[in-house]
Specification:
By secondary structure, this protein is α+β, with helices and mostly antiparallel strands. It is about 40% helix and about 15% strand.
C-alpha cells in the first residue's frame, strides 16, 4: 500500500470517526468507522476506547482483511473489528462501515423491530425497511462473538450484495445499528440518516398506526437518487 493511498484512507477514516460525536451519534466512545483498501487487502479502523477528542490519524489501526491480524498501529483496534471484517468479506460493494449506539436506532434494535418505511425521507436512502437481526444464540456469543455479530447480518441478507447496497444498514437485535457504503464517509452518512429516520418513525408511530405510503412514491424517491436514471444533485466541478 503506497503512502499516498494509505494517508488518504487514514485521513478519511479519521474524519468520519471525528464526525460521530458532532452528529450526535455516540455517547463517550460508543461508535467506530472503518474504511477498506481491497487492493491491499486491509482496512483501517478506530482504536478501542480512545476518546474522539484525543483521536489522531496515527492512532488508527490497520487490520488485514484475510485473517484480522493487525499489520500497522500501536493500539488495539475497536472491539467491533471482526464485525466490520465479516461485512467486508461478505459484501464486495462495501468500502466503509460505521457502527454507533445512536439513541433512536438502538431503541428499535432493543425492541427487535425493523425501522419501517413511513415516508420519503427514509426512501431517499433505504430501498425498504432497515431490518433487525434475530437474537444471537448462546454459542454465537460464547465464541467469535464479534464475527458472529456480522454473520447474523450477512445471513439475514442472504449474503446478497445487491440487497446490501439497496438497504445499506441493519440493526443487530438488542445491540444497535451497523451501516455501510462505498466509502467510510458514505457509511457515516448512512448512519446519520438511519438515526434520523428512526427518530421520525418513533414520533410517527406515537401519533398513529400508519398505513405504508404508496410504493410508487417511495420508488420515485429512491430512484431519483440511485441507479441509472438518478437525477438528484450535480456532478462535482473539476475545473473552472
Amino acid at each position: 500500500m503506497t503512502a499516498r493511498v494509505r494517508d488518504a484512507l487514514r485521513q478519511e477514516v479519521l474524519e468520519a470517526n471525528l464526525a460521530i460525536p458532532r452528529a450526535g451519534l455516540a455517547t463517550l466512545t460508543w461508535g467506530n468507522v472503518s474504511g477498506v483498501d481491497r487492493e491491499e487487502g486491509v482496512f483501517v479502523i478506530k482504536p478501542s476506547g480512545v476518546p474522539y477528542e484525543d483521536l489522531k490519524a496515527d492512532d488508527l489501526v490497520t487490520v488485514r482483511l484475510a485473517d484480522g491480524a493487525v499489520v500497522d498501529g500501536d493500539l488495539r483496534p475497536s472491539t467491533d473489528t471482526e464485525t466490520h471484517r465479516c461485512l467486508y468479506l461478505a459484501f464486495a460493494s462495501i468500502g466503509g462501515v460505521t457502527h454507533t449506539h445512536s439513541t433512536h436506532a438502538v431503541a428499535f434494535a432493543q425492541a427487535r423491530r425493523e425501522i419501517p418505511v413511513l415516508g420519503t425521507t427514509h426512501a431517499d436512502t433505504f430501498n425498504g425497511p432497515i431490518p433487525c437481526t434475530p437474537d444471537l444464540t448462546a454459542d454465537q456469543c460464547a465464541k467469535d462473538y464479534e464475527y458472529n455479530t456480522g454473520r447474523v447480518i450477512v445471513d439475514m441478507l442472504d449474503g446478497d450484495d445487491d440487497q446490501a447496497a439497496g438497504v445499506p444498514g441493519a440493526l443487530v437485535a438488542n445491540h444497535g445499528p451497523f451501516t455501510w457504503g462505498a466509502t467510510a464517509r458514505k457509511s457515516l452518512e448512512h448512519a446519520i440518516i438511519c438515526e434520523a429516520v428512526a427518530d421520525m418513525a418513533i414520533h410517527t408511530l406515537a401519533l398513529a398506526s400508519t398505513v405504508p405510503p404508496p410504493r410508487h412514491l417511495l420508488y420515485r424517491h429512491y430512484t431519483r437518487k440511485h441507479g441509472p436514471d438518478a437525477y438528484y444533485g450535480n456532478p462535482e466541478v473539476t475545473s473552472r
